[in-house]
Amino acid sequence: MLAFGVSICKRPEVKSASAMDRLLTGKLILLVAFLAVLLITACQQVVPLPPAKVTIGDIRSSPAAYEGKVVTIEGKYQGWKGGFGSPPVTRSDWLVQDATGWLYVTGKSAGLDPLGDVGRPIKVTGLVRITKDGEPYLYAQEIEIKAGKASALLLLQIDLREKQLAAPTAERLEQMKAMGMRTENLGIQRVFIHLAQEPTAEQIDELKAMGIIPYPDSWIPVAGGHPTGFMVADMPIDKLDELESKDYIVKLDTAEQLLEPQSVP
Q1: Distance of alpha carbon 164 from its chain centroid, rounded?
Q2: Could you give the domains of the chain?
Q3: b vs e for 72-96, b when ≥16 Cβ sit within 10 Å of the residue's Cβ?
Q4: 139 pairs with which residues across the strands?
Q5: CA distance linking residue 262 with residue 265, whole number of Å
Q6: For residue 162, what is the DSSP state?
């Protein structure tokens, strides 16, 4: 008697449509989550744009356009210089000025003498705000005191000249004379121009084209432990910034001061 074996194959299990939908939905959720993580990571790695470098004139001409924005201004520290209205926040607010205007700064001290350091080159980054009277000012976040070529005494004397021209007083005039300043022409400052080597004919011509009167015959060459030589020049006070920008000029100092005679033992 023959025996026949019957092989019965098990049919593969077919998932229902609802199970497939749940599987696809789960994978889609995982994919969305993965993409979200990538997006967040990418956003965290974006380098913020640097503050916009603007002039004070830009801000004063359109205060509303800059309100709430972080900007950078380069100019001269003016301390508590008068004649610019009331401080917007506190009595310690100070002034920065460039060729286009002036602006009060609050929120952070410059670390400078409000009287003795007037005229120092300074770079301020901060948030533009507006007072209830519509006056813009800067809430400082970062302050950089730039290394200028002009000495503190030269800056002080130029500031005195500017003040005397704007609002002359007998007391200030006497103060200037006591310092040894020449007062016959308040718009001209006599200076020592320090250079690493004797100025060339081209450099002398360039200074003359700026309205500066150099005296090449006064040149004192580099000697001893002094790293520079110098010559005397008469400079219009509004040419200081332009003169400082010349690469061949190392330092500027006043040539108007009284020197105390030294006694010989």
Answers
A1: 27
A2: 52-145 (2.40.50.140), 152-254 (3.30.70)
A3: bbbbbbbbebeeeeebbeeeebbbb
A4: 106, 127
A5: 9
A6: H
Residue of 236, 150, 159, 226 whose CA lies nearest to 193? 150
Tens-digit pLDDT profile for residues 147-163: 778 888 898 899 889 88
Per-residue pLDDT tens for 55-90? 999 999 999 999 999 999 988 888 887 667 889 999
- Decide if 128 contacts 59 (C-beta within 8 A): yes
- Whether 137 and 131 have beta carbons less than 8 Å apart is answered as yes
Using DSSP, state whether 58 is helix, strand or coil: helix
Rounded Cα distance between 237 and 235, Å, is 6
Question: Dihedral through CA 164, CA 92, CA 118, CA 142, nearest 10?
Answer: -150
Q: Write the pLDDT tens digit of every residue in 207-253.
A: 999 999 999 999 999 887 778 999 999 999 999 989 988 999 999 99
State the amino acid at position 128 in one-letter form. Answer: V
